[in-house]
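Sample log: MBL fold metallo-hydrolase.
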Amino acid sequence: MSEDGNIVRPNVAEQPQDWTEPGTHAVVAGVHRIPLPLPLSGLRAVNVYVIDAPTGPVLVDSGWVGADGGESLEQGLGALGYRLGDVDRIVVTHAHHDHYTQALALRERFGSRVQLGRGELPSVEAMLRRRTDGERAPQPQLLRRAGATRLADDMATLLKALDEKDDAPWGAPDGWLDDGQEVGVGERRLEVRATPGHTRGHIVLRDAPAGLLFSGDHVLPHITPSIGYERAPEPAPLRSYLASLRLVRDLPDALMLPAHGPVSPSVHTRVDELLRHHEERLDASLTQLKAGASTAYEVAAGLPWTRRMSTLDDLETEHASLAVLEIAAHLDLLVTDGAVTACEVGGVVHYAPA
């Protein structure tokens, strides 16, 4: 919203029908989008946003180092007259591999500065301990508490294999960003808003005068972000995520520039859909408990997943694990709200309607 109270409606350049189409796509004056390929089965690309600045371009997110991402970024920047070494700074929305690791690689090669939300510190430190001490990811143990023993074993095997072949650079950023801080990019002032939930230190960047929100993975147009899938998850990620959605909903509406998916005209519209989705998931989880389910795994097994309405058994190991952990987060929120009780028996948490 502008100073006179009117909602800003930016002039948006026409976007390709397929948001993953390679190339350099203008968004608004001074902002371009470069989709980079990802080495993932369920997610084809990540958007890197290039913001023009006198000292060199500033990137919002960076992509996954390796695969074809670096070459695609180099070509995309080249279309704007830039080289990789011209990148002045990378502002990263959160410390997942597909957002953070290429930023660290660019820093190693060219000295580009990297900034990250301060709330990511625990997971950055946990990833460093993985490299130095072999610390294992917490997800298998969380799955065992959810009653998903076989899935926990499969996930432990998968994560061990991923860790062994992961040679991406890792480390702390050059600067930590706090909620409410402003990041100067030329004449732009990007307001940092802490939006924990997807990860505990996720941030979005708001260009209020231009009517833009760089939403990272917090608000995505086509998919529901995973909750708390990180090396050091917080105890109540869903509560944090819903609070963060409401925070964004209370801000003036804006053009949504997401990390995955097309540029979309209204952040508010998608936030409302995500809030409804989680309310429906909470109701469905309670219904499963009333029908006799007891653990997060049993509840998740009784619910449909993805837009294809798949069963839990239809999902690949990682996606099935995320599904179970998401339901555990929903059940824990119901406990906090007094609708459900919980008790631990033999290392497994069992839930019942209050």
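Observation: Residues 25-133+169-274 form a domain with the Metallo-beta-lactamase; Chain A fold (CATH 3.60.15.10).
Observation: Residues 1-5 have pLDDT under 50 and may be disordered.
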